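Inverse folding, one chain.
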């Protein structure tokens, strides 16, 4: 591709970008304010957490949130929690927005999940004149139904 053809291609791409950024072809959802129309929309997610201490020092932490591959049939709710998300603007893709909220509000989500089962394993090893201690705190993969209600994220934690 010659230099002139390359410059024309770049100008064409910049022109398309300018048109899209000016809102000519923009998504109408971008301009909507929050409304209660999303009430009742539910996303099923799987959340897990693992925290490792070695000799009383944190060595590893893993917090994962993902979409459930298959929805749970006949789900029974163990308990519910509410998380304030009034500081966030709602995005176009509701399901990914809810997953992003669950990732962003990690501390509040973990406080909610602490009401359920948490596994703690502790073991030590002493060899010659040294001792090591390992502690593992784990929340096994837990299914939740997440939805927005009045600018709050409602989590319904499902029974295993």
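Residues assigned per position:
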């Amino acid at each position: 591709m010659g230099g002139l053809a390359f410059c024309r291609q770049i100008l064409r791409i910049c022109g398309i970008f300018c048109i899209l950024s000016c809102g000519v072809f923009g998504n109408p959802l971008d301009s909507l304010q929050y409304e209660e129309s999303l009430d009742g929309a539910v996303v099923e997610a799987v959340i897990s957490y693992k925290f490792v201490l070695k000799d009383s020092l944190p060595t590893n932490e893993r917090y994962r949130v993902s979409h459930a591959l298959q929805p749970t049939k006949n789900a029974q709710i163990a308990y519910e929690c509410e998380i304030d998300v009034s500081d966030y603007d709602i995005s176009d893709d509701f399901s990914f927005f809810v997953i992003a909220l669950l990732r962003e509000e990690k501390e509040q989500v973990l406080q909610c999940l602490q009401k359920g089962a948490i596994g703690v394993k502790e073991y030590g090893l002493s060899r010659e004149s040294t001792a090591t201690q390992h502690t593992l705190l784990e929340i096994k993969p837990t299914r939740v139904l997440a939805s927005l209600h009045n600018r709050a994220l409602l989590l319904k934690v499902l029974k295993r």
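The two ends are 60 Å apart (CA to CA). The CA atoms of residues 1 and 122 lie 64 Å apart.
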